[in-house]
What does this fold into?
Amino acid sequence: MVAERLSAADTKGSINLRIETNTRQLIDDAAAVLGKTRTEFMVESARQQAIDVLLDQRLFALDSDRYDAFVRALDSPPAPGPKLQSLLRRVPAWKK
It folds into this structure.
């Protein structure tokens, strides 16, 4: 038999936190209400918050009129101003 190795995605790590006693108790109480362990509750809560933060930065919804205006703006960017033109004329630091 060949032993299966865990892929990088399957490995687990740990996160150690120092929190105030009242915060720990609050988390424990909420976890108990849901029938979860503290770890399950904290991991699920942190994971959901992380997803929400990332989606908030990457996903937005527009009605059809606003979407059309957005696409028009992307399709016709403003002409480069003097500051951008000056920046593009500069020699990069790594080429000096």
In short: Residues 38-58 form the longest helix (21 residues). Residues 21-76 form one domain.
